[in-house]
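How it folds
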Amino acid sequence: MVKLINTTIWKEFSESGTLGGIILFLCLIVSLLIANSPLAASFNHLLSTEIGLHSESLHLNYPISLWINDGLMAIFFLLVGLEIKRELVEGELSSLKNALLPILCAVGGALIPAVIYYVLNYDKPTASGWGIPMATDIAFALAVITMLGKRVPASLKIFLAALAIVDDLMAILVIALFYSSKLDYTYLMYAAAVFALLLVFNRMRIKNLFFYVIPGVFIWYFIHNSGIHATIAGVLTAFALPTTEGAEESPLEKLEHLLVKPVNFIIIPLFALANTNITIESSMLQGLFSSLGLGILLGLLLGKPIGIVVVSWLSVKLKICKLPKNATWTHILGVGLLGGIGFTMSIFISLLSFSDASLISEAKFSILIASLLSGLLGYLLLMMNAKKAEN
């Protein structure tokens, strides 16, 4: 009997998202410890080790870090895309007013941080980094809100996921237009052709997952070689999968169920382990108060919540949109703070913005501090709001 109860408790705990969040943050701490220990050089060497295949016609030989950031994270984006499409068809985002709010908030939450950064760095060598504070890290932001479990409305997680994915899609567009040195339009056309094929499969009501997953791998390959961040392939594949409003499990829902645990317990923790690998130096602390550091800190920590809350308020007051189900303005402020968790795409854009290694280090450290503060403040605000509601 005791064994049965323990098994039930463990199952509920592991499926609640809390366990995945704990594993994620443990990997974050372990990565920082390794990066600031004698193991740092060996760990960096491991991440830079190239694996894969390479020939005249096939280019699949990349460092382990790239396989994690571009390969495994495309699977994460696939899962998020599946969740968003399901909500668009039969859930919280199925009405125009609900779907429009996260889109508008993503725009406001991207523009305000970019303006703050650009004003502080105008006419300086660091001005090119205006795109750094624009993006929200989906993995970390959703991990934080998932750890809150039922203390926040389920609609709030969907709202944050939709906001973050639109945010990241805008960041990908910014990278393509302003930070990509060269785009290969031939590969982009190949990707578009395969995506069109997926849409045909959808119209033909083909339910076999292999008809979507295998072409999805080709889309990933073509987009990666086009010069655009390859994670968008996951979103495109997700939006091509068929789903229905009925009780029968659709191909989309089937794939979603298959991916939840591998993504939460393997892919996201691996990403944290590889990308929180920041060696902290004394000069970085001083860099927090430079125009570069302040632009990132204020952009993520203040610009994100200001942009999200102000746009939400205007949209609701003008009756363009309505708040997510059971959500309050405190919830929206909490989500705005979680939106300040930049990390993945912010670090990626910082690598594209600067060639000076010291500027890149300062930017990465500022992103880390801003993301940690945003995540902590957002979590505490939402937790205190939940306790206040219980009382």
